[in-house]
Write a structure and sequence with these properties.
Largest sheet: 7 strands, parallel
Strand order of the largest sheet: 3-2-1-4-5-6-12
Distance between the termini: 21 Å
Order of helices and strands: EHEEEHEHEHEHEEEEHE
Strand content: 25-35%
Radius of gyration: 19 Å
Shape: elongated
Structural class: alpha/beta
Oligomer: single chain
Length: 241
């Protein structure tokens, strides 16, 4: 059995992961959480309280704790899967330099989201004019989402021609790699992203949506299996598919 320490295990995604790992070869040996919870697993509210060792540190907590959690896991000789957002480019570089095991940063565990990003990269070669709209539930902390930011960066890397210049302003979205990204926060949604491409007399729209957090579990399992096969830092689930 591969032993897992799960950070953020009592959020909605964390609870789905607990359920999804129950009948697998992965054993949760404890959960790091900001608050005490009744659980079948040991629960620690600070990193200093952790008494178990593990093979992989799986973090789906919050932007406020993800970097310190990763540094702790590196010191304790673990591979790391990060599903939480909030890492800066400088922090990513630092983690890459420090770790002796694999680190996999996953902006989105959804397989359909990963495929959307790959399709968007292909389309960007032919349609440089593009905007992104992402929708999540009102409790999502970051805006735009990590998935939208990663999608914009991937598109920008693949564009051959420059996009047409358009107006700037609050209503035009946040510019990520010079691509407008619009973030909606509405009840009734879990995660949805649309990428709009415009060309001469034609349009291409790619849309992906998730209706249950259980949809993320297959991606989590692939991430856990994949991170043990790499020895450096990778960003994106597609790196282990």
């Amino acid at each position: 059995m591969t032993k897992i320490i799960l950070a953020g295990g009592f959020g909605k995604l964390g609870l789905a992961i607990q359920e999804g790992l129950a009948a697998t070869n992965y054993e949760i040996v404890g959960i790091l959480s900001g608050h005490n919870h009744e659980s079948q697993y040991p629960v620690w509210t600070t990193r200093d309280q952790i008494t178990e060792t593990a093979d992989i540190f799986l973090d789906v907590s919050t932007p406020a704790t993800v970097f310190e959690n990763a540094q702790w896991a590196i010191k304790h000789d673990m591979a790391i899967v990060i599903g939480a957002t909030g890492l800066t480019e400088a922090q990513v570089t630092q983690l890459r330099d420090q770790s002796e095991h694999g680190i996999l940063i996953v902006p989105n565990f959804s397989l359909s989201a990963v495929l959307l990003m790959q399709f968007a990269q292909q389309a960007a070669k032919y349609f440089p004019d593009v905007e992104i709209v992402e929708t999540h539930n009102p409790k999502k902390i970051d805006a735009p989402s990590g998935t939208a930011v990663q999608t914009a960066k991937l598109i920008a890397n693949e564009r051959i021609n420059s996009a047409q210049k358009t107006s700037y302003g609050e209503a035009r979205g946040q510019r990520v790699s010079d691509i407008p990204v619009h973030a909606l926060r509405l009840p009734g949604y879990i995660a949805q992203q649309s990428v709009y491409f415009g060309g001469i007399d034609e349009q291409l729209t790619l849309t992906q949506s998730t209706t249950s957090r259980l949809a993320f579990v297959p991606g989590v399992l692939r991430s856990l299996a994949g991170v043990e096969k790499i020895n450096d830092l990778k960003i994106g689930l597609e790196n282990v598919l």
